[in-house]
Amino acid sequence: MKRLIISSLALLFLTLAQFCAHANLGENLSQIEQRYGLPVGEAGNPARFILEFSFHGYRVLVTFSAADISVIEGFSKQNGQQLSDPEIGAILSENSLNSRWVPLSNYQFKAWRLASNAAQAAYLRGKLTLGTEFNIDGYLNYLKATNLNHNTF
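and the corresponding structure tokens:
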């Protein structure tokens, strides 16, 4: 039993340590590629583009502004499992922009905004999405209008 607890704690520590290496909002393309390596997919338009990365069992989608700055990031597990609360907490912590995340209770899913109002985040359908140009209500309206699954690339 003691060995199981120690193994579980070690696994949790390694998982959290992986997220300490995750990209942060506001980083440029070069910084993000240093963290994740080369992208495995891309989409977008001239004003904004999205790159997909595969990183230690996670799928990471990064939306860049025209100035090649990360403005929205999405995190999910490649195996389809849910992100754990410690994983979500680690990602939010790494992307706090020197502020703190405040839980929002007016949604039927986990949602936050920075106390500085600089960014919003939502955990919906197995994916954590956050960003300085991410708006939860706008995102929900987009999903509803387009009938898209939250994990659509």
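(Above: one complete record from the training split.) The helical segments are 2-20, 29-36, 85-94, 136-146.
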